[in-house]
Design brief:
- The complex is a heterodimer.
- Helix content of chain A is 34%, strand content 26%.
- By secondary structure, chain A is of the alpha+beta class.
- In chain A, the strands form four sheets. Chain A has a five-stranded antiparallel beta sheet. A four-stranded antiparallel beta sheet of chain A has the order 11-12-13-14, sandwiched between helices. In chain A, strands 1-3-2 form a three-stranded parallel beta sheet, covered by helices on one side.
- In chain A, strand 6 and strand 7 form a beta hairpin.
- In chain A, helix 10 packs antiparallel against helix 11 and helix 11 crosses helix 12.
- The longest helix of chain A is centred in the last third of the chain and has 20 residues.
- Chain A is globular.
- Chain B is of the alpha+beta class.
- Chain B folds into three domains: 203 residues, Alpha-Beta Complex (Aldehyde Oxidoreductase, domain 3), CATH 3.90.1170; 326 residues, Aldehyde oxidase/xanthine dehydrogenase, molybdopterin binding domain (Aldehyde Oxidoreductase, domain 4); 132 residues, Aldehyde oxidase/xanthine dehydrogenase, molybdopterin binding domain (Aldehyde Oxidoreductase, domain 4, 2-Layer Sandwich), CATH 3.30.365.
- Chain B has 19 helices and 25 strands.
- In chain B, helix 7 packs across helix 8 and helix 15 packs across helix 16.
- The chains are: A alpha+beta, B alpha+beta.
- Chains A and B meet through helix 12 of A and helix 19 of B.
Chain lengths: 294, 763
């Protein structure tokens, strides 16, 4: 399999533009390798970003109230970075549970988003945090909110000539609570059977803004707008009464799809989703009120 | 003489293994190697109607694209198998399981062979596919016609498929009375059903073998094998060569677990090598390894007639072993598994029927535990369910029924020094000092379970050994046991050192070459240490006899007294060698052979000597269950085994604990999945999930019961597997009040059982 090694984003977009069907970007290659080994997808020609040295793709920078994470940062880089720890305190914990250190040393942030796999942990979390992708092509640059990025199973809106340059993630602010729940079943380290991310902004004891994403269940990672609408305005005190939780369950249930597969039945996954959602809500309800923490 | 901790040599060797600093088979591949890649079937059952090889042959670097008929031009007997010669080297006109090799593509590089393999086009006429255990038993179409027994092994002599159902390749009966007679008058009769899944062994060093033909027509094979002697015999038979012209070599294995046994890949590389006149090798990826024989699944029914106090009056067992497309070692497993299916319990009447069936699954092989975990899963869980129904504590229930040393087993063979009662009591005592964990969250529930189990040795097979006394009194032992991480090299060295009164660093163990190492049937936890110890002892006696006769030819005052062991005095033996052969002495070689006594079972399955020894072990497990999701985590995992004499206690403990963790993973997470068309859904470790380090129980404990009266080493490698699954099930019941009857134990099934139990209570 031929590999074209490019030294910059410019070279990368030109290489992709030159052959719009047969070329595929490779960052760390961890996701692509699994697909190739199982014969699911074997690319014709690879455009490798390994030698790219544009700082834009390798840095993590604070830009106002957004953290710009370079596309080619490894998951391990992000996990250990002190700026990330400070401004996106939920991320290191999420990344710590992704696969193994060996994989995280090699897998890139952009790669795990562009792969379009609904089981990926990082994109589920970033979507709830309101992240946007900065994307380059020969036509210039555009910004894509992560909410709009995934359109199907392993399918994204990224054009075959486009390269993700960075991910902009709104940083943590007082009153914000972020919880990522990854249900792996029997094994501690595994793909999630169900994953969800809860990102709440609290004001005076009630939820002012809510973002809820669910991953692994359906064909894409997605937001749950009705669940978010239900959460808005809920007070911390009393949110976990049986009546409230029944209501929440009904609302959330209508927004998720859970199919049977060889891992578990759709019915089971649905039950687990509800357990995880309640546990996420309870972890917020029992957390210290904002201002008291950090 | 022997310390409780391991010798420096072993510890540093184990460390080297852990960091991957050992030279394995693929690290020293002979020069000029070419590679064979197998084109595998994409259906589970069908007749091959056409094979189009033209495109593949045209790829530069391809040296041959071979079908079974091509391989047969250099082969005398194309079929092999432990019990029956039912398996062709590669498919012979018909495929019987998904992934069965059909075409062998040989090329100068493995990568080229792989590319060319993609270009081979095979067409099939599909035949009905049968996957499930019961469907296999009732399948009206015979998967095999007129199969020939191998007659290689004494215990498999005379096996024959059932006339009325040829898909039953063996039926084994053990009957000591009429169950129904007892049951009809019994106060209680309980019947339960259990199942286990097919599971793999996944040694991290994936299988490979290499064949190097020599110009004089002889051939050398380098293979990852636990059975070099057997491989040589089979290759000689299959290729019509003298055994003296076949050399099988091996180095230390990166895990065997019963996966690397019998002649599976060697015939293919030999045939290809003979065809092209060049060395040919094969190397499997982890994914491809899943198409090799692995742990077979079972369906069983077990019934017991019990009195009010919990004494078991009679027990009936019916076990279906889903053997897959080829019998492989299935016939032995069916018999041995059937023999112990009633458990280590004093039961006056047992009625056991154990059947092996052909199906379109990948064949079952001989994985660590050899069918016993599947059997114990049924009888121990069944016992716990009975105790619970009768309101009897499971410990009391076992105490009431457990066999003790010297008890006569249902087969009619005495237990000898093997003592299930003693082992069980040791475990109960150990548990007293280990309180059940308090879970961190009030939502979680903890529970504890215990199980006890029994297994017979393999038999009867032969071990021979060559023991050489070097001129300086040090020793070299040529011993066919294969080092695969279980510590056999150091164990055999210790046995020799003990016999000849030497220190460990004065003993060299040579293995790995059939040109110099004498016959050993196979390396397995149910025979190697025990049989080799006896063979070494006889070889040492042979040396003693030779030294005695040397000394007899000398002056009376220099003679060794009749009652003196020349090895008892350090340096004593070589005095006589030097006296006879001059100051530099000479080497002296003794040989020893051991085969256990064996009496084949009668038509009721009974024999007074069905096994050389028995092994037993108790397992205790603490679990933490999340009742809202059904997720079960193992907190403590404890094993106590009765191993007879422990050559190296620390090695024994690591074997026991390793086996128990492996079995915990199999019980909770491992399952080879098929769809209805027989396609394998989860080959490879990305899809077939095994325990990682973080899944290990918080606390793992293993120990052995040592009885000073018992100076014979018995099996160690497998005992840790026997009782793990039922102990987990029992612990789950203790925690959340539900019974699991199917392996692996999945969170979804645990949750469903909890919900069904809650619904029942609500009604």
């Amino acid at each position: 399999m031929p590999v074209i090694e490019v030294g910059s984003v410019q070279e990368a977009v030109e290489a992709l533009h030159a052959d719009q069907d047969g070329r595929r970007l490779i960052g760390g290659g961890t996701g692509l390798m699994l697909m190739a080994r199982s014969g699911f997808f074997v690319p014709e020609t690879l455009v490798s970003l390994r030698r790219v040295d544009d700082t834009e793709l390798l840095d993590i920078r604070l830009l106002g109230d957004v953290l710009r994470i370079g596309a080619l940062c490894s998951l391990r880089d992000v996990e250990l970075d002190p700026v990330v720890r400070r401004h996106l305190p939920s991320l290191p914990g999420v990344l710590h549970r992704v696969s193994s250190v060996r994989t995280r040393n090699v897998a890139t942030v952009a790669g795990c988003i562009a792969h379009g796999d609904p089981k990926m942990d990082l994109p589920a979390c970033l979507m709830a945090l309101g992240a946007e992708l900065v994307v380059a092509s020969t036509a210039g640059r555009r910004t894509i909110p992560l909410d709009e990025f995934f359109v199907g199973y392993y399918e994204t809106v990224l054009d075959s000539t486009e390269v993700i340059v960075a991910v902009d993630v709104p940083i943590h602010r007082p009153g914000r609570f972020t919880a990522y729940r990854k249900f792996t079943g029997t094994l501690v380290e595994d793909w999630p059977l169900v994953s969800l991310c809860l990102n709440l902004d609290e004001l005076d004891g009630t939820i002012d803004r809510a973002a809820v994403t669910v991953g692994a269940l359906g064909s894409t990672i997605k937001r749950l707008p009705q669940t978010e609408a239900w959460l808005r305005g809920q007070a911390r005190a009393g949110i976990d009464t049986a009546a409230h939780l029944d209501e929440l369950r009904e609302v959330a249930d209508s927004e998720i799809e859970a199919k049977d597969d060889h891992l578990a039945s759709g019915q089971y996954k649905r039950k687990v989703f509800h357990v995880e959602l309640v546990r996420a809500i309870r972890s917020w309800a029992s957390a210290q009120a904002p201002g008291a923490e950090r | 003489m022997r310390s409780e901790t391991l010798p420096q040599d072993w510890t540093s060797h184990a460390w080297q293994r852990a960091i991957g600093n050992v030279r394995y088979t693929d690290d020293d591949i002979p020069q000029g190697m070419t590679y064979v890649v197998l084109v595998r079937s994409t259906i589970a059952h069908g007749e091959i109607t056409s094979i189009d090889r033209d495109q593949a042959r045209a790829v530069p670097g391809v040296l041959g694209v071979f079908t079974f008929d091509d391989l047969m031009t250099v082969t005398r007997e194309g079929y092999h198998g432990t019990g029956y010669r039912d398996q062709p080297m590669i498919a012979d006109g018909i495929v019987r399981h998904y992934g069965e090799p059909v075409v062998a593509v040989v090329a100068t590089e493995q990568r080229i062979a792989q590319e060319a393999a993609q270009l081979v086009n095979i067409e099939y006429r599909p035949l009905p596919v049968v996957i499930a255990d019961h469907a296999a038993l009732t399948n009206p179409h015979a998967l095999h016609q007129d199969i020939e027994p191998s007659a290689d092994f004494i215990d498999l002599k005379g096996i024959t498929p059932l006339a009325e159902n040829p898909n039953v390749y063996v039926r084994s009966i053990l009957r000591t009375g009429d169950f129904d007679e007892v049951a009809k008058d019994a106060p209680h009769v309980f019947e339960h059903h259990f199942s286990t899944a097919s599971a793999s062994a996944s040694p991290l060093e994936t299988v490979s073998s290499y064949a190097m033909p020599n110009r004089d027509g002889s051939i050398e094979i380098l293979s990852q094998t636990q059975m070099p002697s057997y491989v040589r015999v089979q290759l000689a038979r299959m290729f019509g060569m003298s055994e003296s012209r076949i050399r099988v070599r091996h180095v230390a294995l990166g895990g065997g677990f019963g996966f690397k046994i019998y002649a599976r890949t060697e015939p293919i590389v030999v045939a290809c090598a003979l065809l092209i006149g060049r060395p040919v090798g094969i190397k499997f990826s982890m994914e491809e390894q899943f198409y090799l024989p692995h742990r077979r699944g079972t369906t069983s029914t077990i019934a017991s007639a019990v009195d009010d106090e919990g004494n078991i009056l009679a027990r009936r067992c019916f076990i279906i072993w889903n053997g897959g497309a080829y019998a492989d070692v299935g016939p032995r497993m069916v018999k041995k598994g059937g023999n112990v299916a009633a458990g280590p319990y004093n039961i006056p009447v047992v009625d056991i029927e154990s059947v092996g069936v052909y199906s379109n699954r990948i064949p079952g092989g001989a994985i660590r535990g050899f069918g016993i975990p599947q059997i114990v899963w049924a009888y121990e869980t069944h016992g716990d369910m009975i105790a619970s129904s009768l309101g009897i504590d499971p410990v009391t229930f076992r105490r009431r029924n457990l066999m003790k040393r010297n008890a006569i087993h249902h087969t009619g063979t005495p237990l000898g020094p093997c003592d299930p009662s003693l082992v069980f009591e040791r475990m109960i005592k150990e548990l007293e000092s280990r309180p059940l964990v308090e879970p961190d969250s009030p939502e979680l529930k903890a529970g504890r379970g215990v199980a006890i189990a029994l297994k017979a040795a393999m038999g009867p097979t032969t071990s021979t050994v060559k023991l050489t006394l070097n001129p300086d009194g040090s020793a070299t032992v040529h011993c066919g046991t294969v080092e695969m991480g279980q510590g056999s090299d150091i164990t055999m060295a210790q046995i020799v050192a003990d016999e000849l009164n030497l220190s460990l660093d004065e003993v060299k163990v040579v293995s790995g070459d059939t040109d110099s190492v004498p016959w050993d049937a196979m390396t397995a936890g149910s025979r190697s240490t025990n049989h080799m110890e006896k063979a070494i002892s006889r070889a040492a006696d042979d040396l003693r006899t030779q030294i005695r006769s040397l000394s007899d030819s000398m002056d009376t005052e220099d003679r060794i007294a009749d009652d003196v062991d020349p090895f008892k005095v350090k340096g004593g033996a070589i005095e006589y060698l030097r006296a006879k052969f001059g100051p530099m002495g000479a080497t002296l070689t003794g040989v020893g052979a051991f085969i256990p006594d064996y009496i084949p079972p009668d038509s009721d399955g009974r024999s007074e000597r069905i096994t050389e020894f028995w092994m037993c072990a108790a397992t205790a497990v603490d679990v933490i269950v999340d009742p809202l999701t059904g997720v079960v985590r193992i907190d403590q995992l404890m094993t106590i085994s009765d191993v007879g004499k422990a050559i190296h206690p620390e090695l024994v403990r690591t074997q026991l604990s390793g086996a128990s963790i492996m079995m915990a993973s199999i019980s909770m997470s491992e399952e080879i999945k098929y769809d209805d068309d027989g396609q394998l859904l989860n080959p490879g470790l990305a899809l077939y999930r095994i325990f990682g380090f973080e899944d290990s129980p918080r606390a793992v404990y293993a120990d052995m019961v040592l009885d000073k009266r018992d100076q014979v080493p018995r099996g160690v490698g497998e005992s840790g597997t026997f009782g793990v699954a039922p102990a987990i099930a029992s612990a789950i019941h203790d925690a959340v009040g539900v019974w699991m009857t199917d392996l692996p134990i999945k969170p979804e099934n645990v949750l469903r059982a909890i919900e069904e139990a809650a619904d029942e209570r609500a009604q």
